[in-house]
Each structure stands twice: as structure tokens, then as C-alpha cells.
Amino acid sequence: MTTSVQRLTVLGATGSIGMSTLDVAERHPDRFEIFALTAHRQIDALFEQCLRFSPRFAVLGDDNAAGLLRSRLREAGSSVEVLAGSRALAEVAEHPEVDVVMAAIVGAAGLQPALAAARAGKKVLLANKEALVLSGRLFMDAVAASGALLLPIDSEHNAVFQALPADYRRDPDACGVRRILLTASGGPFRSAKLAELDAVTPEQACAHPNWVMGRKISVDSATMMNKGLEVIEAHWLFGAPAERIDVVVHPQSVIHSMVEYADGSVLAQLGNPDMRTPIAHALAWPERIEAGVRSLDLFEIARLTFERPDFERFPCLALAYRALREGGAAAAVLNAANEEAVAAFLDRGLAFRRIADVIAATLERAHGLSVDSLDEVLATDERAREIAREEIRNCR
Ligand code: NAD
Ligand code: MG
Predict the structure, then answer these.
(1) Which CATH number, 1.10.3720.10, 3.40.50.720, 3.40.50.300, 3.20.20.70, labels domain 6-152?
(2) What is known about what this protein does (predicted)?
């Protein structure tokens, strides 16, 4: 098949997913051209990326940072145009010359540019799971209305996508799908004693056994809220209700997820835990390209094991299922409270085990909120954060 060059915007280019995306794209200069790169505050990293990839645009969080980057790039003889702020993020996501948008900003901050890409009908590679948790219906409606192509980057969802029929249309029954089985590594505290969790530090929480990731998602993996957010993400991506999405703890992270069919078949996608696999899969879909990932050595792995998730040790997982079943604004509230609690934990202002308490209390207190429009989503996010911050202060 002949391919034309695809112009790519990477939102969150300096993060873990952003860098892996550029690593894959750089292996295929005949297929991908970098149109825009964005970062929040990492001027040095974005400067290096601008010299290496010569994008048309670079976007930073504020004018100050943008000014610094602009003058450094001029000095280096680069003609990259530097923009700032959230409006600029949306502009480089929806720009008419862009074909593909990698949505890899962490947290609710990534929603608006990801939604802009979806509304503009782009090929959207979605790593930013929080966008779907916050505004699943709005986001999926935007994709349907514009005809955007939405491809999941989260390794579990990418695995499920690969195990589903090519013509799957968000209806499990129409394709004989019985269950979606999301695998979870169990994070660094899978077998720690409950009492030991009281004194967990940010460094311990961020030391994931199998994956190297940004700090927020690393803490989410340690509380298993990451899997909770992924259950909600799977609901929106694949149209499956909570009772058809099961979590299976699989500490080796070799099976990235599975789909069970009505006839008893279970299809799995396997591979080394390296995000370049799902990224390359989505970048090239429906073709396959080299990702720089080494072959899976099954003899070295030798055995794959499975455990039931422990909802007592990981109350965040139970809270996420509860929010999904409740519907309405509950998932958005859960996400906002989690982001605030995780930020406080990383700042050493909240104990690890209180993260779940803050989220539970915020869910109890948040009433009368809705998520039917972008304005409502943003207002709900803000209100839930206010409540969560009060709860965090009460924990001190
Ligand atoms: P990261 O912290 O390494 O990088 C985040 C990126 O977003 C950086 O480029 C940062 O500059 C930018 N950013 C942060 N705050 C911002 C703001 N307020 N406005 C604009 N830009 C901002 O995170 P990551 O690990 O790469 O994760 C990115 C997303 O991908 C998250 O939603 C995460 O859940 C998801 N994800 C990550 C992995 C992984 O292996 N890292 C796997 C699956 C899904
Ligand atoms: Mg994942």
C-alpha cells in the first residue's frame, strides 16, 4: 500500500507517551511529519525537540515560557513558531493541515485540545484517559458527529481494540462479545501489607515494577485508580456496561487485555510492556510498522499468573466502578477528586491511603452536577476540585 505523509501534532510531547510517540515517528520519516509539539513548562525538553523535529508550531503553557523558548530558538537559527496557552493547544489540534493528533497531556487539562481534535474529525490517538472519564458521552458524540477516527493508546484498550472485530461498533451483543477482561499489573503494592501502605512515599509509589510512566499515572497505578479510570474508559470506547468489564490482576504485564466471546473464545494481545507497541499500532493502523520493541521472549517469561483484584486493599477501584454505575457526573467528580488528591500526595500533603478517602467524601458531597456540555463538564470539574481540596485540608 502506498502511504502519503501524515502531519502529526503531539499534545504533551515532553511526557512519557509524547517521547515514545516521537521515537516511533522518527523511525518512519517517510510516513510522519511533525506539525506541532506542546508542553506545559518543560522549556529545555521542548527546545531540544524543536531542533530535532523542526515542527511548524511549538506550544507552551504561558507567555513567559513561550517568550524564553522563542528567543532560544531564534538564537539557534530555528524558525519554529512558538505559541502559548490553552487556545493555542486547541488550534494546533484542530488545524486544517493536521492529519493525526496524539492526545498525551495528563489529566483534565488535556480535555479541550483532545475534544478540539475530535470535533475537527482528526485521527485521534487517545492516551489521555481522563478526557473520556470526564466527558465520555460528549467526547464520543463529537467523534460520531465529525467522523473522527478514535484509536486507543492505553495498552489495555489498544489490546481490546486489536482483539475485537474490525467492524466493531460499540455494541458487545452485535458481535457476540461476552466480556472485556482488562489486565492490571497490581502496581508496586500488590502484595504489601495493608499497614505498610500508611507510610508510602511518592518515590515508592512512582516506582512501578513494569512500566516507566509520568508521576500522576504512576500513583494511579499504585492505588489502582488507574485501572478504575480504565474501566470507565473501556465503557465509553467499547459501549460495554460495568458488569461486562472485569479486572484481572496479571503481574507480568505480558497479556495487555482480553475479549471473551459468546462461544467461549478468549482473544488476547500479548507483548513486552513497551508503550511504543500501541503507539505504533495506532499510528500505522490498519497497517503495521516497526516500533523498536524487542521480540517477546516467552521462555524467559516462563509463566503467566492471574489474581482477583483486592477491592479492600485498593478501594479506588471500587469507587470507580461505583461512579460508572451511578452515571451522570459521578465519573467526572471521581476524576477531579483523584487529580487533587494525587497532586496533594505528590506534594507530601496527603497520606497515600487518604487518597481514596478524599475521593469517597467528594463523591458523597457533590450533588446536582451535570456533564452534558463542555461548560458543564468544566464547572463540574472545578466544583469537585473545591470540595476535594476542603477534604484534603480536613485530613491534615
Ligand atoms: P507525563 O507526566 O510524562 O507527561 C505529561 C505531558 O503533558 C507533558 O508533556 C506535560 O508538559 C504536559 N502537561 C502536563 N500538564 C499540562 C497542562 N496543564 N497543560 C498542558 N500540558 C500539560 O504523563 P504520561 O505518563 O506521558 O501520561 C500522559 C497521558 O497518557 C495520561 O493521561 C496517562 O494516563 C496516559 N497514559 C500514559 C501511559 C504511560 O505509559 N505513560 C500509559 C497509558 C496511558
Ligand atoms: Mg493502561
Answers:
(1) 3.40.50.720
(2) Catalyzes the NADPH-dependent rearrangement and reduction of 1-deoxy-D-xylulose-5-phosphate (DXP) to 2-C-methyl-D-erythritol 4-phosphate (MEP).
